[in-house]
Amino acid sequence: MARARAHDPTAGPAVGNVRHVTPSFELDQDHLDLRTWVHDFAAEVVRPAAAEWDEREEFPWPVVEEAAKVGLYSVDFIVTQALDETGLGFPITMEELFWGDAGIGLSIVGTSLAAAGVRANGTDEQVAEWIPAMYGAPGDLKLGAFCSSEPDAGSDVGAMRTRATYDEAGDEWVLNGTKTWATNGGIADVHVVTAVVDPELRTRGQASFVVPPGTKGLSQGQKFHKHGIRASHTAEVVLDQVRVPGRCLLGGKEKLDARLARAREGASSKAGSNASMATFERTRPAVGAQAIGIARAAYEVALDYARTREQFGKPIIENQAIAFSLADMATSIEASRLLVWRAAWMARQGKRFEQAEGSMSKLFAGETAVRVTGQAMQILGGNGFTREYPVERMARDARIYTIFEGTSEIQRLVIARSISGAPIR
User: What angle, rounded to 10 degrees, do the helices at 75-82 and 102-121 form?
Assistant: First the structure.
């Protein structure tokens, strides 16, 4: 849909082990139109509903239905942005949507994580079959859920216990285990589940499976009542003798058998060969963009408040401490956006993340969101601590961005290993 003129951010002199980059992005009219369209939807539909659905802690079906009606929640939109040669369509969309509200925003885009799981690991035929089944159509909404984390295996993907065993006679896979922290878990029509097929190979012995709608043995476990992003449905998914056809193994059995054979022979693994990591690598810049949207929203509230709130006979923005805090907030947001855009562009161009740029973008943007929303609350003083102002909700929502899809500590581990080449633990 949209194209931007993007200078190659991998160009530039290398000094020592550090690659100096000079990214320069100039959005063309298509991208500007996309930003305006999503921003208007966020301002007119999402924001007015944010407080209500945060209080209700329920999936905002009416709002997602409105997103489907305008084409924001649809296969066509996802495909268009996936084909954007710059890679910037998704980050622009995420920032504006989450500027509206993070809980509702995640309800609208949560299915895209499952779609990314299919796209990262599936065949063209599987992509064509299952991604449309995750979205449905206006008046007949469908949802997708990506199920990777487990009660004892969050950051430690190698500790995964969910098992998939092959029934050759029936050409079926049998899944057993419990997944947790699954966005749309249990209420989704299509679940994408990662499971262990060869325990001895740990992370290299895992694969992804599609569990079609109505499959027996899949049920929702505990629904979580969260600190933030409350409108988004998060729950456990229980798999008890879940049988899926052989065609539901993403990538197919021939490809899986070949990969397992190489792993058993001790061949080095390629980046992205793990089913969960292949998905997260594609989504981290978009998650960083979500965090930027929250941070920007809180910054704008704080800036407007500082301009109009008077103390000692003058607006508090004339207080240097307040002005400097706002300056730091604005600078961090701009820096986060450049990191996210660079990583998204590199991913779309198939560039290798030599310095773990995807993790850098998610780490910096997530921590920026936590810091900026906290500063916004401080600028609003007592008002910022009440639900009369949205920064209280924004601060709660921001906190998850240093935790999910890889904690800040895990991002630092990925970056440290990348820049050092050392097996850091």
Answer: 70
Alpha-carbon Rg for the chain, nearest whole angstrom, is 22
Q: Which of 115, 113, 135, 145 is nearest to 127 (CA)?
A: 115
Active-site pick, 44, 95, 405, 409 = 405
Look up the CATH number of domain 4-12+19-142: 1.10.540.10
Contact 362, 404 (CB under 8 A): no
Measured in whole angstroms, how far is the alpha carbon of residue 424 from the centre of its chain?
A: 25
Give the whole-angstrom CA distance, residue 412 versus residue 409.
Answer: 5
Give dist(CA 81, CA 91) in Å, integer: 10
Pick from 373, 146, 388, 187: nearest CA to 276: 146
- What does the pLDDT look like over 362-385, one tens digit per residue? 999 999 999 999 999 999 999 999
The tokens for 393 are 């909700």
Q: What are phi and psi of 227, to 5 degrees?
A: -65, -40
Fold of 145-264: Butyryl-CoA Dehydrogenase, subunit A; domain 2 (2.40.110)
C-alpha closest to that of 161 among 145, 144, 148, 146: 148
Residue-wise pLDDT for 351-368, tens only, equals: 888 888 999 999 999 999
pLDDT at residue 283, as a whole number: 78
3-state secondary structure of 147: strand
pTM attached to this predicted model: 0.90
| Domain residue ranges of the chain, discontinuous segments joined by + | 4-12+19-142, 145-264, 275-420
The yes-or-no verdict on residue 13 having pLDDT over 60 is no
Say which DSSP state 215 is in.
-
Report the C-alpha gap between 311 and 299 in whole angstroms: 20
Q: Which residues of 112-141 are buried (b: 16+ CB within 10 A; e: fewer)?
A: bbbbbbbbbbbeeebbebbbbbbbbeeeeb
Residue 266's pLDDT band, with cuts at 50, 70 and 90, is confident
The rounded mean pLDDT for the chain is: 90
Residue 194 has pLDDT above 50, yes or no: yes
| CATH number of this structure's domain 275-420 | 1.20.140.10
Query: Is 265 a known active-site residue?
Result: no
Tokens of 359: 């993790």
Count of residues in the chain? 425
